[in-house]
Amino acid sequence: MYMPPNTRLKLDPRDEYTHEPEPVSNYNESMYFNAFDSDAGLGLWVRIGNRPNEGHAEMTCCVYLPDGRVGFMYRRPALAGNAAMDAAGMRFDVVEPFRRHRVRYEGDLLLMDEPMAMADPGRAFKRFPQRPAHIELDFEGVSPMHGGEIVTLQGERATLDPEHAVYRGHTEQNMAVAGHVTIDGVRHDLRDGTGYRDKSWGPRHWHSFYWYKWLPVTFGRDFGILLSLKGRPEGGPARVSGNVLRSGIYEPVLDGRIDTDYDPDWVPRSLAAHVTTASGTYTMTGRVLTTVPLRHKRSSGDGRSYTRIVEAMTEYRCGEHRVLGMTEYCDLMTDGVPVSVATARAAA
Question: Could you list the residue ranges forming a coiled coil in this record (predicted)?
Answer without folding.
Answer: none
